[in-house]
Design brief:
Elements lengths: L2 E4 L2 E8 L6 E5 L11 H9 L3 E5 L17 H10 L9 H15 L4 E6 L1 H12 L4 E7 L13 H7 L7 H15 L7 H14 L3 H14 L3 H4 L6 E6 L7 H10 L4 E5 L11 H20 L1
Parallel strand pairs: 3-4, 3-5, 5-6, 6-7, 7-8
Antiparallel strand pairs: 1-2, 2-4
Helix pairs in contact: 2-8, 3-4, 5-6, 6-7
Length: about 300
């Protein structure tokens, strides 16, 4: 299996298309594995002449697990409330460095980067720390880390932060319940959710890893001020039916980045239904082309 190395951390990755084409790095959200970017979606980007890269963030899939560090969301919450430094295994800056290691391993000097949810946060961090490596950035259904925006609805939060199921059937039921609440209402497909949740469970099940990723998000704080210095061409996309990360998080992201384009997708929740793929691909492709034209001017 192909791995990139960020020090002792091994990051599993996969590629699609011609390496001579512009690279598009796809960054996953909380707890999701690279297979969350469906092969069919990757193929649509390949058809638009991108060299597509997907990878497992640390603590999920085939990448390095931090099992020696027992996570405690309660302790992180208490530390933040008390104004003390949370004790976490890593932060988003480290996860952004993992993404950079993948590009380094593949010999990619500059890439277009697209991230969903936590993946959008990682892409934002890449733009802050390594702008020279990004040709463009797209942040989808994400937020800035400010606590006054991008919050989940109380109904979703009650399930999202509850202790996770540990058996396959329970994991599938929980995922169905969550996506019914925060997904795109017109495109909810219980069978598709069950299939994807089952595939992810069988490939790698690591709830402590998800808790460590969530701790990293919480401990990383606000990026709003730093995003004000970003000059990477930025596209911010959010659905108006997102009950996991409220659309206010997307608006704050776009407001924070100079010159960013903000696109609201009516009827979209916190998911990636196939019915919206063609529109997504068109948005990202046009944004990448516009960024390339700007760099040539």
């Amino acid at each position: 299996m192909p791995f990139a190395h960020n020090g002792p951390v091994k990051i599993y990755y996969e590629t699609f298309g011609d390496p001579a084409d512009p690279a598009l790095l796809l960054v996953n959200g909380l707890g999701s594995q690279c297979i969350s970017y469906d092969v069919e979606l990757c193929a649509m980007f390949v058809d638009r002449h991108f060299f597509v890269i997907r990878f497992d963030n640390r603590d999920v899939g085939h990448s390095t697990k931090f099992d020696q560090f027992k996570p405690s969301i309660r302790a992180v919450t208490a530390a933040l409330k008390n104004g003390t430094e949370p004790d976490v295994a890593y932060r988003l800056i480290d996860m952004a460095a993992d993404a950079l290691a993948v590009l380094d391993t593949l010999g990619v000097e500059r890439a277009h980067a697209m991230g969903m949810s936590m993946g959008g946060m990682i892409v934002q961090q890449l733009a802050i720390d390594h702008p020279e490596r990004l040709a463009s950035m797209t942040s989808i259904m994400s937020t800035t880390g400010d606590r006054d925006v991008g919050q989940a609805s109380p109904e979703v939060a009650a399930i999202f932060y509850a202790p996770p199921s540990t058996d396959r059937d329970g994991v599938i039921r929980s995922r169905q319940e969550l996506e019914r609440l925060y997904g795109s209402p017109a495109f909810y497909d219980a069978d598709r959710v069950a299939r994807r949740a089952g595939d992810a469970f069988e490939r790698s099940f690591n709830p402590d890893g998800v808790a460590r990723q969530l701790s990293a998000v919480m401990a990383s704080g606000s990026r709003t001020s730093a995003l004000g210095d970003v000059r990477v061409p930025a596209l911010v996309v959010h659905g108006d039916k997102d009950n996991l990360i409220d659309i206010s998080g997307g608006r704050r992201t776009a407001d924070a980045i100079p010159g960013a384009t903000f696109v609201t997708i009516e009827g979209m929740g916190h998911d990636a239904p196939p019915a919206l793929w063609a529109y997504w691909v068109e948005l990202v492709t046009e944004h990448a082309r516009s960024a390339l034209n700007e760099s040539l001017d």
